[in-house]
Structure to design on (85 residues):
């Protein structure tokens, strides 16, 4: 399968997603998700220039159900296992 044009890939060829969290006065006011590094950078810069606080992180396809790195997912699971409903 060919990667989509402009899609960002991790070192193992996995798809990754950039997450941009826009905060004001300590509260999240918007969240954006994009596969494009350029778009993520542009969004973050736009909101910083507008006076907002911006946090970012990466999601990769190796942990499909979590928006965190595999290492953080493993740490979270080891610290406090998920409880099934």
């Amino acid at each position: 399968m060919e990667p989509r044009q402009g899609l960002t890939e991790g070192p193992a060829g996995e798809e990754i997603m950039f997450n941009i969290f826009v905060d004001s006065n300590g509260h999240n006011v918007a969240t954006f998700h994009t596969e494009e590094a350029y778009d993520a950078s542009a969004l973050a810069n736009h909101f910083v220039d507008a006076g907002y606080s911006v946090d970012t992180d990466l999601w990769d396809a190796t942990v499909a159900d979590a928006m965190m790195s595999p290492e953080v997912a493993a740490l979270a699971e080891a610290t406090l296992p998920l409880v099934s409903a």
Q: What stands out?
A: The chain has one domain: 16-79. The first strand starts at residue 16 and ends at 24. Residues 16-79 form one domain.
